[in-house]
Write a structure and sequence with these properties.
It contains 5 helices and 9 strands, in the order E-H-H-E-H-E-E-E-H-E-H-E-E-E. The chain has 167 residues and is of the alpha+beta class. The chain has a single domain, classed as Cyclic phosphodiesterase (Cyclic Phosphodiesterase, Chain: A, Alpha-Beta Complex). The N and C termini lie far apart (41 Å).
C-alpha cells in the first residue's frame, strides 16, 4: 500500500479543545485520521528525508506563536479551515531552515488548521453558521515538529518528534 510523509505541527490539546470539538462533530472521518495540526512541509518537499532529518536534528528554533483568523470555507464551500493570520516570517523561516540544501526557495504555504476536509465531509450553510458561533483560540503555540506517515486512507502515525526549544 502507498504511504506518504509530512512534517506537522500538532496543537496543544488544551488549545485544540474547541477545534477538536468542531472536527469531531462535523468531520468524524478526518477527526479519526489525524489530530488538529498545521502542516509544515508536504510530502513532495521532504522526499530527501535523510537531509530533512539532518536539518531537524541540528535545528535550534523558538516555539511558534501564531494568531488565528475566523473560520473560512474553501473547495466550493465543502471544506472549512482556520487561517493563520500573522505569518510574521517565523513559519516561513522555519520551513526554509528545514528545507535547506533541498529546496532553494520553498514555495509559499498558507498555514491553516483544517476543520472540515472536503475529501470526507461537506459543510452546509447551517453547519458553517454553527461553527462560526464556537469560540476558537485567538493564538496558538506550537512547540513540536512531528514527522508523520500515512498509508493512504489509514490513520496518520507519528514516526519522530522534534522539540522546538522555546524563545
Amino acid at each position: 500500500m502507498a504511504t506518504r510523509q509530512q512534517l506537522t505541527l500538532f496543537l496543544d490539546p488544551l488549545e485544540a479543545a474547541p477545534i477538536e470539538h468542531i472536527r469531531k462533530t462535523y468531520n468524524t472521518i478526518q477527526y479519526g485520521l489525524i489530530k488538529s495540526h498545521v502542516t509544515l512541509c508536504r510530502e513532495d518537499e521532504i522526499k530527501q528525508i535523510h537531509k530533512v532529518l539532518e536539518n531537524l536534528k541540528g535545528l535550534s528554533y523558538p516555539k511558534l506563536e501564531l494568531s488565528l483568523g475566523k473560520a473560512e470555507r474553501f473547495s466550493e464551500g465543502k471544506g472549512v479551515f482556520v487561517p493563520v493570520i500573522d505569518l510574521n516570517q517565523s513559519f516561513r523561516n522555519l520551513r526554509i531552515k528545514i528545507l535547506t540544501g533541498i529546496i532553494e526557495k520553498p514555495r509559499e504555504h498558507q498555514a491553516h488548521i483544517t476543520l472540515m476536509h472536503p475529501r470526507n465531509s461537506s459543510c452546509t450553510d447551517s453547519q458553517f453558521s454553527e461553527i462560526l458561533d464556537i469560540k476558537l483560540p485567538a493564538r496558538i503555540t506550537l512547540s513540536t515538529i512531528s514527522l508523520i506517515e500515512q498509508e493512504i486512507g489509514q490513520k496518520w502515525q507519528i514516526l519522530e518528534v522534534f522539540q522546538l526549544p522555546g524563545s
